[in-house]
Amino acid sequence: MKVSAIIPTFRRPQLIARSLESVLAQTHRPLELIVIDDGSGDDTPRVLETFATRAKAANVDFKFFTVPNGGPGLARNVGMQQATGDLFAFLDDDDAWMPDKLATQVAALAAKPAAGVSFTQYVHAGSDVAKPSAESLRDGWCFKSLCEGNTRAHLQTLMVRREVTQRCGGFLPLYNFEDAEFALRASLDFEFVAVPRALTVIHGAPTSVSREAGLEGDLKRDAIKLKALEEFAAKYASHARFDGAALKNYRARIYDEHIKHLLWLGRVGEARDARHRALADCGDLAILRNLGGKIRKARALGWFGMRLKKP
To answer: What are the pLDDT digits (tens) for 89-113?
Structure first.
């Protein structure tokens, strides 16, 4: 089966070679590589052009496009629209795949025709610790386990059948959380199959969206996640596999992170108000009840001009 490797990129001409080389080194054929320059406005097109000859020598169909900046979700959607493969695999421009990554997942999906999505373990650069843990490799119908955090299907490890995007749609036009929402949506209609091997290396560039603007950036990302989950609940509540209690658990986990971010910034009053909203939205869940003690501790520290420390 033909695999389309899809890579969005934004202002990382000095990093993207690593990702592209890892695709060209894949053992699986037929293979195409599609790169979407998300309006970088720098040397990215020139760098991409240098890979055309190398891709041809590696028997990889290669094409790249430049689009107005709209975020990684929209860029991936453009890539899928241009793709001719039976299977889509996603990689970011600062990470890399092991050479047998695609071949292994093609075999895993072939062995389970009912599954629409495959995911694998990964490692962080410089570490040999495979993530997620074996306990987080639950697959099959996994909407509930994704919500509860017991299944973690990292985008860089995903391989999906074309039918998944045809039925479920592409990525939301977000700059964060579009990958998690996509996996959650796909899990309503397709089984997942896990590969218990670390086949992707996550490098985590300093300019990563997940690191941008520190705790203030975290607050903005928290808001995006909570809104996306609220809209997800409104849209898919009638789906046969939708589990409202599980999604409330997911939202409570995001609220938990959000409230801790506020406490680490010393914004205790806002954290208290956010906890009240969380209890109203999600119910009296243990993860939210337990925040009461942290808020009281943070308030007491504030009397002495101190803040709750980030672990």
So the answer is: 999 999 999 999 999 999 999 999 9
Q: Does domain 3-202 have CATH number 3.40.50.1000?
A: no
Q: How far apart are the first and last CA of the chain?
A: 46
Joined together, the tokens standing for residue 160 give 């999906």
Give me the sign of the Cα torsion angle 169, 173, 175, 177.
Answer: negative
Of the candidates 78, 66, 79, 108, the one whose C-alpha atom is nearest the C-alpha of residue 4 is 79
Per-residue model confidence as pLDDT tens digits over 134-185: 888 899 999 999 999 999 999 999 999 999 999 999 999 988 999 999 999 9
Predicted TM-score (pTM) of this structure: 0.92
Tell whether omega for the bond before 99 is within 30 degrees of 0, i.e. cis. Answer: no
Quick one: DSSP state of residue 310? P
For the range 185-189, what are the long-range contacts, defined as Cβ-Cβ under 8 Å and sequence gap of 24 or more?
185/232, 185/236, 186/116, 186/117, 186/160, 187/117, 187/141, 187/142, 187/143, 187/146, 187/241, 188/143, 188/236, 188/239, 188/241, 188/242, 189/116, 189/164, 189/241
Sorted by sequence, the CB contacts under 8 Å of residue 246 that are 6+ apart come out as: 143, 144, 147, 148
For the chain, domain boundaries: 3-202, 213-302
Contact 255, 227 (CB under 8 A): no
